[in-house]
Amino acid sequence: MHRAIPMASKACFERERNKEKELHKRKIRAMRPQVNTETPHVHHFDHLRNNLKKEQLLEERYHEIDRANRILLQRMSDIMKHPNTSGHAMQRSATGPPSLNEGRRRSELRRITQENQGILHRIRKAQPVLNHVEWEDSFKQSTGYLRNAAEYPIALTRKGSSRPGSAAGLKPLEDAHAAPRGGSRSPTNNRAEEDLRYVLKEGKQLDKRYYLVEMSTDGRTLAISAYDGDSQRNLELIVNERNHRRLYRDTGGDYSAIASKLRVEGGQLVLEPSPGAGPFEST
Question: What pLDDT digit, counting tens, does each position of 226-255 carry?
Fold first, then answer.
């Protein structure tokens, strides 16, 4: 609830109130700030308003430019006054004086060239120290010694053959009519031993016994041998070209997968046909 200030005389009260307002305004106008925002006295110092070092550097640069311009102007003036002599003088200064060692340098270069030609001539006439024919003969002789001294059959990977377990390249089918249909071609009878390529040599467990299985091919037939070290018995199986190509196609060229199909039945080495495929043709 608003209550008015009690007063005895409204005119006196109003005059006192106006007087207080005027006094308050005078105090506000005369009030001084707590922070000094006036311009500092050092602002008027010359070394702060002017960068004398920069002006000195600019002046030195201008003097250097003027000096270069004067030198260039003097040279141009000399060229215009003496066009012929100045050109010869500049040419002599550019080429320099003739060398006193020119003859010696030419003779040294000629000597080095002759020595290089002599070295090249001797290199071209030098005979080779290594003879690959003797190496091949020595290898064949060592291989014969190894086969005679070995206790177990030797499987050597010859040049051009694939690594054990990899796909050995089969010959094209255009020569298939050379052999009778379903006939076998023994690599020991129809091919030289050098034509054989050993494609697999690994140990397999057949009929609860451990055999050393070797596979070799001449590009058509596949010769499989399984050696039992305990009984020193060697089982052999010759796969004709048609069956060889069928096995190669079914296993994707993996001779290790072909070896997993081997079985020993009745003391004979046989191949187990793939599921869903017919039996192999007889060799």
Answer: 888 778 888 899 988 888 888 888 888 888
